[in-house]
Amino acid sequence: MFLMINLGERAGSGLPKIRQGWEIEGGTIRLFDSFEPYDQTRLEMTWGMADETGKMTGKMTGKVFDLLVSNNALTVSELAAKLEKSESTIERAIRELCKLERLRRVGSRKSGHWEILDD
C-alpha cells in the first residue's frame, strides 16, 4: 500500500519515510515490539479523532490527545511549547476533546492531571 503512494521501499527500510510522511500530514505512529513467543512489531497509526457524528476533528486535536496519552501531566504551556503553537490553540483543542468526552481534567491547573476517557 505504501509503495503506491511513494512512502515505502522494497528493501524494508521505508519506515522512517512512512513515519515522516504520516506525521507531516497530522497523524501519529507508535511502534510496539515484542519478542516472545516470536519477534513481531505492531505499527499503530492514528489520524485525528471522530466526534459523535463521525466527523473527524482537526489535526491539532489529535496531536494534543496523543501527547496527553503519553504524559497526562503536561500543562497547556508545555503542550504549546512542544507543538510550537499558541496556548489559545492548545486550549481550543482541549475544549474540543472535553466536548467529545475523550479528556477530563482531574485536580487543579497547577497540580492536577488529564484523565483520558475510554470510548
Question: What's the helix and strand layout?
Answer:
Blueprint: H1 15-24, E1 28-34, E2 40-46, H2 59-70, H3 76-83, H4 87-99, E3 103-106, E4 113-116
Antiparallel strand pairs: 1-2, 3-4
In short:
The chain is α+β, with helices and mostly antiparallel strands and 119 residues long. It has 4 helices and 4 strands. A hairpin with a 6-residue loop joins β3 and β4.
Tag the structure with descriptive keywords.
two-stranded antiparallel ribbon; globular; Arc Repressor Mutant, subunit A; 4 helices; 4 strands; alpha+beta; about 35% helix; about 120 residues; two-stranded antiparallel sheet
Can you tell me about this structure?
It is a single chain. This protein has 2 domains: 1-47, no CATH class; 59-116, Arc Repressor Mutant, subunit A, CATH 1.10.10. The chain has helices spanning 15-24, 59-70, 76-83, 87-99; strands at 28-34, 40-46, 103-106, 113-116. The protein is α+β, with helices and mostly antiparallel strands. A hairpin with a 5-residue loop joins β1 (28-34) and β2. It is globular. It contains 4 helices and 4 strands, in the order αββαααββ. It has a two-stranded antiparallel ribbon with strand order 1-2. A two-stranded antiparallel sheet has the order 3-4.
Name the CATH homologous superfamily of the largest domain. Winged helix-like DNA-binding domain superfamily/Winged helix DNA-binding domain
Strand order of the largest sheet: 1-2
Query: Any guess at the CATH architecture of the largest domain?
Result: Orthogonal Bundle
Class based on secondary structure composition and strand pairing: alpha+beta
* Low-confidence segments: none
Give the helices and strands as they follow along the chain.
Answer: HEEHHHEE
